[in-house]
Design goal:
Elements: E1 25-26, E2 33-34, E3 37-38, E4 48-49, E5 83-91, E6 94-102, E7 112-121, E8 124-130, E9 142-148, E10 155-161, E11 165-168, E12 176-177, E13 179-185, E14 188-189, E15 193-194, E16 199-200, E17 212-220, E18 223-229
Antiparallel strand pairs: 1-4, 2-3, 5-6, 7-8, 8-11, 9-10, 9-13, 12-16, 13-14, 13-15, 17-18
């Protein structure tokens, strides 16, 4: 059941909703109001979980153990949290501390939607999206665009792009397609952003029908007048 959360005091298209319960799921929608009454509500946004946006780091201590190494040897530690680590070496004569910066690389997160489709024609279309929120700590090399094959129901690679947009070509006229986009860096490929809408590969305007009833209406030795019925 929908409950009123807030009524803004200005026409600015933004608001802060307080009083959420941590861990609960919420959806929101917006209604415009003027002197004539209320509008229809907007489409509901994606489900939101009330939780802290930023969390303090926590070290996974399950695999921590004492290690004995020889002087000059290399020590390798597993770390799953980006940030600054303090390493302390201690012996009977004292101790020394050094601070190291750890950068962890991973696959990027999925590109951000919506996946916009425009300039549809019988052999292709134009796609546009947004870069991932997290590139995985290493630059995005390219975006992989796949199309859903209407005959097999399988995703098929159709093109790549280094920018968050692409011109798709090679579609079969009259076939229906959906698209998805993944970001790729040195660590691998992200989860895909799957488009919500499908398209039919066709020109925005149908080709005209054929003219009919072509016949001469007048002529002479050096000219002829023609008339016909235009296409429907």
């Amino acid at each position: 059941m929908w409950e009123k959360a807030l009524e803004t005091e200005s026409s600015a298209p933004l608001a802060t909703i307080n009083g959420l319960i941590e861990g609960n799921e919420y959806q929101f929608r917006v209604i415009a109001v003027n002197k004539a009454g209320q509008s229809e509500p907007s489409d509901a946004g994606k489900t939101f979980v009330a939780k802290p946006r930023y969390l303090a780091p926590k070290i996974d201590r399950r695999n921590l153990r004492d290690i004995t190494i020889s002087a000059g040897s290399t020590l390798k530690l597993d770390a799953s949290i980006v940030g600054e680590y303090v390493v302390t070496a201690t012996n009977s004569s004292g101790k020394d501390t050094v601070q190291i910066n750890v950068v962890i690389t991973d696959k990027p997160t999925a590109p951000k939607g919506p996946l916009q489709i425009s300039d549809v024609h019988k052999e292709g279309c134009h796609l546009k999206w947004k870069r991932p929120e997290d590139d995985g700590g290493t630059p995005i090399e390219y975006f992989q665009i796949d199309k859903l094959d209407p005959e097999t129901g399988c995703w098929i690679p159709c093109c790549r792009s280094t920018e968050p947009q692409a011109n798709v070509t090679g579609l079969n006229p009259g076939s229906e397609y959906k698209f998805r986009v993944s970001a790729v860096n040195a660590e691998g490929e992200s989860e895909p952003l799957v488009g919500d809408e499908s398209i039919i590969a066709k020109n925005p305007f149908d080709e005209p029908g054929k003219p009919e009833n072509l016949k001469p209406t007048d002529w002479d030795k050096d000219h002829i007048d023609l008339a016909w019925t235009p296409p429907k």
